[in-house]
Amino acid sequence: MVCRVAIIGAGVSGLASIKCCLDEGLEPTCFERSENIGGLWSFMESPEEGRASIYRSVFTNSCKEMMCYMDFPFPENFPNYMHNSKLQEYIELYAKHFDLLKYIQFKTRVTNIKKHSDFHISGQWNVETQKDGKLESLTFDAVMVCSGHHVYPSIPVDSFPGLEKFQGAFFHSREYKGPEKFRGKKVLVIGLGNSGSDIAVELSHTASQVCISSRSGSWIMSRVWDKGYPWDMLLVTRFESFLKDALPRAISDWLYVRKMNRWFKHENYGLIPVNR
């Protein structure tokens, strides 16, 4: 008897899960609430409920050698770091190459997952879905949840007393798509992560003033590292991990801070991370 597996989401992880199930002789069925694959990387002009959302200018922070599928390298003519449209193209090439689309049910939302009545014996799950207003309940031997973790925004309004009296607009980066609406305006970007940095830089060419607020500091790095190589090919290595574990903490920390300060001294800008 073939093991039936339900896969929720047809993004990067969902597609890899379909492929792995097929490799192991399992029978996958993938449920995707939108009408296409790609998940986070499938750009849409407006945020969609229950789906991750990116801005128009998003580029990858990992190089193509470090983020490709193990059994499907990026085409050689693709750049080291890709615009989201190029990564989406790669995802579609992957799905087409391994003929994965036929295992996906599009515009199908998973509304509930619960243990089967004889779960203690069979280990099976009931998966309830909705498509075109029609409800359906199916039984599977296993469930893989690949819906991602960037779907629902978190705005800690309690951390900003008086926010309800603010005369301007405030929103999560999930709603940001481009700088056009901010021409001539003063903007405060809260957070110094990848999205905050990207958006602040992009807005600096359009808005009249842009400020970044960072609670705990951060190391600011370039995607391009020594001799023009991608940063992650040089820093995320077995040797670097060995060195970090082998050296005394004080020395490995000193070496790390020295590397991070190679472009500019973070202390001069009050950016030294709280946890170093």
TrEMBL record:
It is a single-pass membrane protein. Broad spectrum monooxygenase that catalyzes the oxygenation of a wide variety of nitrogen- and sulfur-containing compounds including xenobiotics. Catalyzes the S-oxygenation of hypotaurine to produce taurine, an organic osmolyte involved in cell volume regulation as well as a variety of cytoprotective and developmental processes. Its cofactor is FAD. Keywords: Endoplasmic reticulum, FAD, Flavoprotein, Glycoprotein, Membrane, Monooxygenase, NADP, Oxidoreductase, Transmembrane, Transmembrane helix. It catalyses: hypotaurine + NADPH + O2 + H(+) = taurine + NADP(+) + H2O; trimethylamine + NADPH + O2 = trimethylamine N-oxide + NADP(+) + H2O; hypotaurine + NADH + O2 + H(+) = taurine + NAD(+) + H2O; N,N-dimethylaniline + NADPH + O2 + H(+) = N,N-dimethylaniline N-oxide + NADP(+) + H2O. GO terms for molecular function: flavin adenine dinucleotide binding; hypotaurine monooxygenase activity; N,N-dimethylaniline monooxygenase activity; NADP binding; trimethylamine monooxygenase activity. GO terms for cellular component: endoplasmic reticulum membrane. GO terms for biological process: taurine biosynthetic process. Its EC number is 1.-.-.-. It comes from the Eukaryota. Gene3D superfamilies: FAD/NAD(P)-binding domain. SUPFAM superfamilies: FAD/NAD(P)-binding domain. This is Flavin-containing monooxygenase. InterPro entries: FAD/NAD-bd_sf (IPR036188), Flavin_mOase (IPR000960), Flavin_mOase-like (IPR020946), Flavin_mOase_1 (IPR002253), FMO-like (IPR050346). PANTHER family: DIMETHYLANILINE MONOOXYGENASE. Belongs to the FMO family. Belongs to the flavin monoamine oxidase family. FIG1 subfamily. It is found in: Endoplasmic reticulum membrane. Its main location: endoplasmic reticulum. Pfam families: FMO-like.
